[in-house]
Amino acid sequence: AKEYGRNCYRFYSEELTSLAADRLSLERDLRGALARGEIFPVYQPQIEFGTGRVTGAEALMRWRHPKRGLVLPADFIPIAEDSGLILSLGEYILRESCRQARQWHDRHGFDAVVAVNVSAVQFRQNDFTDAVSRVLAETGLLPERLELEVTESVVMQGVESAVQKMRVLDDSGIKIAIDDFGTGYSSLSYLRNFAVDRLKIDLSFVRDIPHHTDANAIVGAIVTMGRGLGSRVIAEGVETEAQAQFLQSVQCDEGQGYLYAKPMNATDFEAWLKTSNSG
Ligand code: C2E
Ligand code: CA
Ligand code: CA
Ligand code: CA
């Protein structure tokens, strides 16, 4: 039994060591990734159900690693958050998205919002709102064309200062979306403290409609509440026509997902925009 225990321990610790080593090597690579031009946003359109109009483009971060290939956020955002690297990565994605949206506006009359994910680590910075205004000034994007996607955990951390920052952003005309809505453990009372422009229904609910009555009920309730609060409601992860039909039947405003388009690099998104405008 003693022998067995020791082997077990050794196996466990070797596995841990290799995981930790992998994480360390990713973190080391991530440190130089921005300077080497390996980080970039891809864009996924957001579509109004009734009209098919493009109402927004969500920017999603990607990392083209020289050896590992394309690395998805789930594998590097947590490392970026723990190490503080998310501050520079996040600001880069914000600036690049605003620059791009301004360019699409000038070239193609793109007047939808560009939606940028904001980490709790970024939002917590005292100068966060200043950093955002600086980027808008530098890129010439109108505040109304920028939407910041924050999760409920962001709103709940140090409620006082979070609400204060939300108000500053809201007053400047920037839009606020609550991401992954319904998956956090927060109270809903924060919704009374500032204007939320959009509620985003998490794909974990969308995945299960229209065949699971629980998911249907939750999605219906989120839409009713969102509309009652004057927010638009958007569903993420819409993959099937049946999901889109259910969402439309409960008056969800917009959808985003593979049914419409996968996230695309800037060049492909621009080409997609042209075909969807003329279609
Ligand atoms: P999220 O903000 O909830 O984004 C939705 C995720 O669903 C994205 O994954 C998107 O590519 C994926 N998706 C889109 N349509 C579909 C669909 O029809 N079906 C399915 N199954 N998935 C779909 P992605 O790009 O891997 O991003 C994962 C998460 O990483 C995001 O979740 C967000 O929390 C975070 N993230 C991405 N970009 C950034 C960023 O620039 N900054 C920060 N702080 N977080 C980011
Ligand atoms: Ca998001
Ligand atoms: Ca507003
Ligand atoms: Ca989500």
Automatic annotation (TrEMBL):
State the Gene Ontology BP annotations.
cellular response to nitric oxide; regulation of DNA-templated transcription
Q: From what superkingdom does this record's organism come?
A: Bacteria
Molecular function terms from GO: cyclic-guanylate-specific phosphodiesterase activity
* Location of the EAL domain: 23-277
- UniProtKB keywords: Coiled coil
This chain's protein is named: PAS domain S-box-containing protein/diguanylate cyclase (GGDEF) domain-containing protein
Q: Which organism is it from?
A: Nitrosospira briensis
Q: Source taxonomy lineage?
A: Bacteria, Pseudomonadati, Pseudomonadota, Betaproteobacteria, Nitrosomonadales
Q: Which residues of the full protein are shown?
A: 487 to 765 of 767
